[in-house]
Amino acid sequence: MKFSNIKYLILRRVVQFGLLFLYFAGNVWGWQLLQGDISTSLLFNKIPLSDPFAVIQMFVAGATIGINVLIGALIISLFYGLIGGRAFCSWVCPVNLVTDLAAWLRRKLYIDKIERKLWISRNIRYYMIILALIVSVISGLAAFEVVSPITILNRNIVFGIGSGIGLIVAIFLFDLFVVKNGWCGHICPLGGVYSIIGKYSLFRVRHNSDTCTLCMKCKDVCPEVQVLHMIGKKSMSVNDIECTNCGRCIDVCDDDSLSFGIGFYIKNSSKEK
Amino acid sequence: MGGKDKKDISSRRRFFTNVAHNIGLATMGTLLWAGYTTKAKSSPLTLRPPTALPEDEFIKTCIKCGLCAEACVNRPQNRDRDGNKKPGTLKMAKAGDDVTIGTPFFKPRERREATLIDRLLYGYKRGEVIDNGVPCYMCDDVPCAAACPTNALDISRVINPKTKEIDIKMMKMGVAVVDVHSCIAFWGLQCDACYRACPLMDEAIKLVYNRNDRTGKHAFLEPVVNPDICTGCGLCEKACVTQKAAIFVLPRDIALGNPGDHYVRGWDRDDQKRVGKRKESDITTHDKRSSQKPIDYLNRGLEY
Asked: Could you say which of B30, B64, B65 has the minimum Cβ distance to residue A135?
């Protein structure tokens, strides 16, 4: 395997594990680079970073929102809104490590070929957002935050392993045996929130259909395969909001047909194939 | 009526069925989820970090980031004699802790016997007791509250209105309760472990001397907690010499009663302030008997 085929994958794993390590070190050795956990962190002991979805839930649950988390949520929203798009899901979220492992095993074990197909809508995540807000209002606490496998896994790593880890195993098995990319690609409301936040972000995957050989390796690995509808048809950027900018499609492409680019892009003079 | 074929339903029927379908799914989801959160929210026996908002507000406002727990364990004073870091007071709740998941709490004392794993990995002896509980040491600068980004821990709750400075004695995390049945000082044995462990010695816990009639020549030195002063830090619980602590900290709303406005210490000028200017006629009646004024009730049936 060539390095160019796993370039972004390695970079992503370095970022994901690096962040987890910094959180861990912040608790265990008192490093002041990145303290707290994924719901709210403190960068360099100064800059607050907060999960905007958690803050919205707290707000509708009736909490008085402190200025620090408000600034933190604003910084995060601006970062992903202007630059990263839905990059949180593939570059930061620890559950991505679990679900990517499930997706990889699924390909290696040919589970896709034998499974009874269970279809669920990819829009469930958006209904989950609304549901989370309704439940937050009813029960007077941030509803997704008490069930979120993201923060549970993150806390398990930062503050020590506890019994909540069963939920993570359940999601792994769900992704492996029930629905392909089931959690991250269908259900997780946080992914939905970052999709919406990143609608107009600058970083986008670009497709050049002139060099594409239609090998469809990109569609094999893409966790949100519906966003790659233009493959081999049209040279344009991936504009669908569910693209996580994971760069896996760019990695596996041997024809230089995919790359990261800045801004929306569409090539009108592209010849129809 | 036409349309026996499944596919042949009118667009209006389709619309209404779809609406009913979606409402049904949403209601099911809400009920399941809200059912879980309502259960997850209730952790009545939890001791919260110092300066925490009242439990209901705290649950809403805490974002579960753990900055308080990190500030607690990493505070410079938290070292043993060899300079090694000690475990922190505050823990982040995990599933199975019976505390709303991800929120900070503390347990002053949590004893268990060394398991096989403890003996193999950490060199404990068979039958040795491990205490994982850590009480709150009431740091002067309240680092946990200072670290909170959401004001779920609100340091202004312990700012003395007179001096405008942080006053750790104002903290109210819980209150110590003595089980007089198992406390050996109430047996007549001499023990003042809790009294001496208390950071507010002779204020929060006082030793009350009582005559021991059994021997006729000894005294009971009975520890009595003053709930107005006790902060609920748990040092007494940690220090208690009995196998299971005879003095332990409970959340204040669990452990303390409330006499209400009916009863006033008539001999105490300040106690009248507690009730304010309430009059007899302000007091609501609850049953047939109390609907009459006491004097009417007493005079009933008297003939002159």
From this structure: B30
The domains located in chain A, with CATH, are: 3-197 (no CATH), 203-262 (3.30.70.20)
pLDDT at residue B105, as a whole number: 92
- pLDDT tens for residues B151-181? 889 888 888 888 888 888 888 899 999 999 9
Cβ separation B149–A26 shorter than 8 A = no
Contact between B63 and B92 under an 8 Å Cβ cutoff? The reply is no
Cβ separation of B59 and A141 shorter than 8 Å? Answer: yes
**Residue A7: what pLDDT?**
85
Contact A58 B61 (CB under 8 A): yes
Out of B26, B40, B73, name the one closest to residue A146 (CB). B40
Contacts of B34 in chain A (CB under 8 A): 135, 138-139, 143
Length of chain B: 304
The model's pLDDT over A64-98, given as tens digits with 9 standing for 90+, comes to: 888 888 898 999 999 998 888 888 999 999 999 99
What six digits make up the tokens of A228? 């790659």
- Cross-chain residue pair B37–A48, CB shorter than 8 Å: no
Distance CA B294, CA B304 (A): 19
How far apart, in whole angstroms, are the C-alpha atoms of residue B303 and residue A117?
Answer: 91
CATH number of the domain located at residue range(s) B174-257 in this protein: 3.30.70.20
The pLDDT tens digits of the residues spanning B173-212 come to 999 999 999 999 999 898 999 999 999 988 899 999 999 8
Cα–Cα distance, A70 to B156 (Å, whole number): 19
Q: Give the domain ranges of chain B.
A: 43-171, 174-257, 269-299
- Rounded to the nearest integer, the mean pLDDT of chain B is 84
